[in-house]
């Protein structure tokens, strides 16, 4: 017996990955419906060798659907999730629309699978940077409560959708073409004034990313909010408390977009209540679900290593030199997979496992 699955946002960066992941894990799909906006209606996509036409989402799209995977942005989730639930589907939503709603569980199966038991039709998938962080924190938290987390992220452009990938490609092509002319004249390599070229303004104009992203780092993801933190940073603060069931855990985040296509990296500093040895931390992470540990300190994961990988990769674990109860580590995850599509499908798998569907 399989399930009738719908993907809203099937043509996007996350939606495409969902389709791929459902196929890869051989999720028991009886029937699949691919939904998007009018723009993509009629496009053909493939699932298990079968060609499937994308449909425009409509009032009756969720009729007979068991599981609706949403990845079409928060306003579309707010509009369509109540309709899907009313039609009898369980919605697993990738957007920020319902994450902090007290009636909606926010779930990373490796961390708080049990929260699925109190869902009322909608389950939220956390933000990509939060997911990979809590997968890394939970095994350590189980050894000793974590009091404080200071995290700096290095986030890939695919986290901002397909158009952001195009933006990085276009800008990189433009800048690299100019630099190529200087390849053999390294003495002139510094300060090439490409930004003053007449067409630079157009190509380098920020669209999905608020500043030039090619050959740059941008400490601004989503909009600015209270106390000079961005919304992405607030998501990491609030979502971590909700997932870990610990309102007292202190989280301070700085989120930065970097010119990487896929894979978010995070430098995470934590303070625990009890002092832990590195050996205890290694052992906990080695045995943790969804984690691949790079124990040898000279080996470490990078975004290139995590593309298409289902596990969260952790390396560079060190103790603070002055604080026996503090540690730092480097955590890398595929934002489209564990950060989005994979986590959503894992939630669906957990619902089946727990007999909740
Ligand atoms: N990218 C990530 O790493 C990541 C991680 C976690 C969560 N998320 C969340 O997942 C969602 C999708 O992100 P994405 O990166 O996949 O974005 P994306 O590549 O821009 O794709 C957006 C998708 O939404 C659809 N859509 C847009 N407007 C629509 C409308 N009015 N009605 C129906 N469908 C509509 C698009 O369909 P058309 O083809 O018709 O335009 C497309 O399928 C967002 O809420 C995002 O915050 C993304």
Give a brief outline of the structure.
The protein has 357 residues and is α/β, with parallel strands linked by helices.
Folded structure, characterized:
This protein is of the alpha/beta class and 357 residues long. The chain folds into two domains: 3-125 and 340-353, 3-Layer(aba) Sandwich (Rossmann fold), CATH 3.40.50; 126-335, Dihydrodipicolinate Reductase, domain 2, CATH 3.30.360.10. It has helices at 13-24, 74-86, 109-112, 128-141, 162-180, 200-203, 231-244, 278-286, 303-306, 337-353, and strands at 3-8, 29-36, 44-47, 50-53, 55-56, 67-70, 90-93, 122-124, 146-155, 250-257, 264-272, 291-293, 312-319, 326-333. It has a six-stranded parallel β-sheet with strand order 5-2-1-6-7-8, sandwiched between helices. A six-stranded mixed β-sheet has the order 10-9-11-14-13-12. Helix 1 (13-24) crosses helix 10 and helix 4 runs parallel beside helix 7 (231-244). The chain is globular. NADP nicotinamide-adenine-dinucleotide phosphate (NAP) is lined by residues 9-15, 36-37, 39-40, 57, 71-74, 76, 94-95, 128, 158-159, 161-163, 335-336, 339-340. NADP nicotinamide-adenine-dinucleotide phosphate is lined by residues 9-15, 36-37, 39-40, 57, 71-74, 76, 94-95, 128, 158-159, 161-163, 335-336, 339-340.
């Amino acid at each position: 017996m399989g399930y009738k699955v719908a993907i809203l946002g099937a043509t996007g960066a996350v939606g495409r990955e969902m389709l791929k992941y459902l196929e890869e894990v051989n999720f028991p799909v009886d029937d699949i419906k691919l939904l998007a906006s009018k723009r993509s209606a009629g496009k053909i996509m493939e699932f298990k060798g079968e060609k499937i036409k994308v449909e425009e989402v409509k009032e009756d799209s969720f009729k007979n659907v068991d599981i609706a995977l949403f990845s079409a942005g928060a306003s579309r989730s707010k509009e369509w999730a109540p309709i899907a639930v009313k039609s009898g589907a369980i919605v697993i939503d990738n957007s920020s629309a319902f994450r902090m709603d007290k009636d909606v569980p926010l779930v990373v199966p490796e961390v708080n699978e049990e929260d699925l038991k109190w869902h009322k039709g909608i389950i939220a998938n956390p933000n990509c940077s939060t997911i990979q962080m809590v997968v890394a924190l939970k095994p350590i938290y189980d050894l000793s409560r974590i009091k404080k987390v200071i995290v700096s992220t290095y986030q890939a452009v695919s986290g901002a959708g397909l158009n952001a990938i195009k933006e990085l490609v276009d800008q990189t092509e433009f800048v690299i073409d100019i630099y190529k002319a200087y390849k053999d004249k390294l003495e002139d390599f510094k300060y090439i004034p490409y930004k003053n070229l007449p067409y630079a303004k157009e190509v380098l104009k920020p669209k999905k990313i608020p500043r030039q992203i090619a050959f740059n780092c941008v400490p601004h993801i989503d909009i600015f909010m209270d106390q000079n933190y961005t919304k992405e940073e607030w998501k990491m603060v609030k979502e971590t408390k909700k997932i870990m069931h610990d309102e007292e855990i202190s989280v301070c985040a700085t989120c930065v977009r970097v010119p990487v296509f896929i894979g978010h990296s995070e430098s995470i500093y934590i303070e625990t209540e009890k002092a832990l040895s590195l050996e205890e931390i290694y052992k906990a992470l080695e045995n943790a679900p969804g984690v691949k540990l790079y124990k040898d300190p000279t080996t470490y994961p990078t975004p290139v290593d995590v593309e298409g990988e289902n596990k969260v990769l952790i390396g560079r674990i060190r103790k603070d030199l002055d604080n026996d109860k503090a540690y730092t580590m480097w955590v890398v995850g595929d934002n489209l997979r564990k950060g989005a599509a994979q986590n959503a499908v894992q939630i669906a798998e957990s619902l089946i496992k727990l007999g909740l569907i």
